User: Fold this.
Amino acid sequence: MDNSGSVIILEDVSKKFKTKSGEDILALDSVSFKVKHGEFVSIIGPSGCGKSTLLSLIAGLEMPSKGNVYVDGEKVTGPNPSKISLMFQEHTLLPWRTLLSNVEFGLEIRGIPKEERKEKAMKFLELVGLKGFENKYPREVSGGMKQRASLARSLVLDPEIILMDEPFGALDEQNRIILGRELTNIWLKIRNTVVFVTHSIREAAYLSDRVIIFTKRPGRVAKEIVIDVPRPRDFGDDKLARVEKEIFEQIFDSKQ
Ligand SMILES: Nc1ncnc2c1ncn2[C@@H]1O[C@H](COP(=O)(O)OP(=O)(O)OP(=O)(O)O)[C@@H](O)[C@H]1O
Ligand SMILES: [Mg+2]
Assistant:
């Protein structure tokens, strides 16, 4: 197997959970795939097929029942927050801190001096379009703005890998498209490796270099689609529409 350039490798990974009643649930079944350095990969598949579980395995928050996960050539044995940052559907901002001090939080933990911290946090708040809102508290801003702040908080740590679990899933379609576009623009500047879980076929096609489609539970890789459309992309692009159709058909098939 040629692993050169791969920053994330899943090798025949299965994950079984025990329910409270003692029953076994197979969430993921023999999943193998690789993600290259600087690649933007989306994961799409039916609810309950193990997408969030997959991110937890890459982040080292859960261990596989079978198979191995490697990050940067090393077997994952626990969380590695210096390399990997996570972003979720619901913002995880601290309500008692302003947006600025939320973005500074991770830097504070790393012991970065106050001035440098502020400078970095302001740079990323500006990048996500929140300049002028830095002194607001999470309750004072909209859902979209909270997700922008969460994004800034993930990016400011300059992680090698960002794992995003339906980060725009709670937003309305228009905000979702706007944030998707902005995420692409930011990503083109920073080029971190991104694994992005979404339920939106359109979002997956628009954002990704490659989309990995999963079957219903137990989640297996049903198909991988490479999206060879140069950026900046257009939401109405014909090529993207064809990719969307391909994803749609595959998801529909795997539900039979
Ligand atoms: N800690 C756990 N204990 C028991 N079962 C779990 C646990 N975590 C996940 N599961 C089960 O594993 C399966 C996969 O869950 P997971 O949350 O990864 O799915 P998902 O694809 O992210 O779904 P959704 O699209 O709804 O977010 C589900 O059946 C879920 O109930
Ligand atoms: Mg999930």
The two ends are 32 Å apart (CA to CA). The first strand starts at residue 6 and ends at 18.
